[in-house]
């Protein structure tokens, strides 16, 4: 019943910065979970540890029951990460980018899956355009589609609406909510309480690497 379980997780960078300090929390399957905190709080570090991009210093983390150290491949296969930085080849088209990703994960019926995802994120008209010609919001939606290519049960979005205008933000949220209705567990980081309030069932707040709250959204908002 736990989509993600994080126990006593700490990260101290080589430079000496303690980015995470003894953080523990669980994300329930089927929920939309918000990780809130100001810039520099440690949110990206936490996500990068789940993504396998940053090595933790101590503690443990599991995704869909798979420990990231013991079963890293199964853990990775259970999660789709939408990174904060937009990065893909500017001369790849959305269709090519998704087909390539599908190939990496050995997804069956890659072409059909690609078209399905392009429709879902409303990029079917841009299927054959160079990624460099897409707007910021379109690129972000392409990243969401890319994270969903292997149909993971959990998707994590790191500051998904940074630099996205209000209309595109709404389209992104509509898609995320739709995924959640279809059973996908969603974790998102944001530094906007308002955004987390609207979307999340539960919100954890992190500051200076420490977890300072973890409550159902209603209780948290009641306190403010
Ligand atoms: P290291 O793991 O040795 O710190 P990095 O290449 O990650 O190696 O970073 C080198 C140095 O650059 C770090 O020690 C840190 O001082 C600084 N640094 C890198 N990324 C960041 C960041 N996102 N925020 C603050 N400082 C950073
Ligand atoms: P957030 O995503 O909440 O803005 P981060 O996880 O990016 O926070 O950063 C947490 C802290 O760790 C910050 O003080 C940041 O400068 C530092 N940091 C991030 N990456 C590195 C790095 N590679 N090396 C050294 N310090 C880093």
From TrEMBL:
Keywords: ATP-binding, Nucleotide-binding, Transport
Protein's UniProt keywords contain ATP-binding: yes
All copies of domain ABC transporter, residue ranges: 4-224
Signal peptide positions on this chain: none
GO molecular function terms noted in the UniProt entry: ATP binding; ATP hydrolysis activity
Source domain of life: Bacteria
Coiled coil: none
Name of the protein: ABC transporter ATP-binding protein
Annotated organism of origin: Sphingorhabdus lacus
